[in-house]
Every structure is written in structure tokens, then in C-alpha cells.
Design brief:
235 residues; alpha/beta; 7-stranded mixed sheet; 9 helices; 19% strand
């Protein structure tokens, strides 16, 4: 989604208020969340999730935690690839709407109810901008993933090319809210594009993941730069 790292951040909620707003929002939009995702991305989000799972490169039957799992899209991809998956989300509404056979846990991803080094890997799909503390999220992922384990975190991005960036910005700030108003929740689909302002610049994003315990972390651009994938190996 569009929006520079510092743009409009002052008008967005923070701290406990952000957590409350995000949870309430996802509870409201859960029933049509998957439909809107497919429409907004023209179905490209399916391929992005498959790429994230491929980048894990873990042995069969590896245990992977899907953090902020929503309705379980990544859980389904993980299981289809032969992994054992556990989904975690703090939105009760999203978990109720989930379509996966994987076990689901209602919990805050900043305080995971798992012991240290319990998992072989972790994934997250389009939720980095929704956590209250991104550094704490990366640290918690590092805590629960064993040394040698892998993470793959998907997030929206802004294209580098100026023409693509302009078109992307117009689409997500004009068209997406209209789709949301017609099919789901107007406020939520105005907030989601604006929430890109929570993300730090790409270089700092990678540096944060490296400092958390993934020294080989790197950033991959997908579909012309409208999505990004952060991958790394736990030291």
C-alpha cells in the first residue's frame, strides 16, 4: 500500500489505542476480509503467500507459527507445503472467520504463549504495520524460533518507479476505500492504506530484523514493488 514512512503518522493511533482500534477494525471486517484481499490485489496476494512459504526452506513437518494469522490464508499454504502450522491472532472475529484446519490461538503476537525456540519458523502476512511495537514483534519472533530456523514476513510496499508509485497511490487511496465502502467497512479501508505510514524506511526495516537475531535478513520486492517479503535465518 502507498504512503511514505512518515506521512500522516501523527493522525494515526498509537500504543494501547492503536491495539484497540486494530482489534476492533479486524473484528468488524473479518467476514469479507478474504474477498476484499482478492479484489484489491487482483488475486496476486495468493502468489505472494506461496512465495513466502517457499522462502522458508524448512524440512518437511517443520513447525511454523503464523503470527497475526487472520483468517488462516498462510496457515493453509503452510499445511499444503507439508508444514505443521499454528495460527496466532488477537482478533476474535478473524479467528471465528478462519478457514483452516490448523490449530488457532487467540493471543497478542507481542506476548506469545509459547516457550523459547519452540518453532522451526514463523510467518506473518500484511500485519507488520498493525503491531504496536515492530521491534518487539521481531524480538518475540526471534525468541520463539530456534537457531537455524527461518522467518518470512509479507507486507505491502510502495513501488520505487515514480509512475508506478503514482498509480499505486491513487489506487489504494481512492479506489480501495470505495471498494471497502461498497463491500465492507469504509473506515477500515481508509485506515489500511494510511497505516503504511507506520512502517520505517526499507533499510531500517531490514536492520531491525537483523538486530533482533536474523543477521542474514534481506528484503525481496514482489510484483513490481507493490509488496515486500522480509526473510531471515535465526542466529
Amino acid at each position: 500500500m502507498a504512503g511514505g514512512p512518515g506521512a500522516r503518522r501523527t493522525s494515526l493511533p498509537s500504543g494501547i489505542e492503536k491495539a484497540r482500534v486494530v482489534r476492533s477494525m479486524f473484528d468488524r471486517i473479518a467476514r469479507r476480509y478474504d474477498l476484499l484481499n482478492r479484489l484489491m490485489t487482483f488475486g496476486m496476494d495468493v502468489g505472494w503467500r506461496r512465495r513466502a512459504v517457499r522462502e522458508l526452506r524448512l524440512p518437511g513437518r517443520a513447525l511454523v507459527l503464523d503470527l497475526a494469522c487472520g483468517t488462516g490464508d498462510l496457515c493453509r499454504e503452510l499445511r499444503a507445503s507439508g508444514y505443521r502450522a499454528i495460527g496466532v491472532d488477537f482478533s476474535h472475529g478473524m479467528l471465528l472467520a478462519a478457514r483452516t484446519d490448523a490449530p488457532l490461538v487467540e493471543a497478542d503476537v507481542l506476548r506469545l504463549p509459547f516457550p523459547d525456540a519452540v518453532a522451526d519458523g514463523a510467518t506473518c502476512g500484511f500485519a507488520l504495520r498493525n503491531v504496536v511495537d515492530l521491534g518487539a514483534f521481531f524480538a518475540e519472533a526471534a525468541r520463539v524460533v530456534r537457531p537455524g530456523g527461518r522467518v518470512a514476513f509479507l507486507e505491502a510496499a510502495e513501488p520505487v518507479h515514480p509512475v508506478l508509485r503514482l498509480g499505486h497511490d491513487l489506487y489504494f487511496r481512492r479506489v480501495v476505500p470505495l471498494l471497502g465502502a461498497a463491500l465492507s467497512d469504509t473506515r477500515a479501508y481508509r485506515y489500511l492504506p494510511a497505516s503504511m505510514a507506520y512502517l520505517p524506511p526499507p533499510g531500517e526495516l531490514v536492520a531491525m530484523l537483523r538486530r533482533a537475531g536474523f543477521p542474514d535478513a534481506r528484503r525481496l520486492l514482489l510484483s513490481g514493488g507493490i509488496a515486500q517479503l522480509l526473510v531471515g535465518t535465526r542466529a
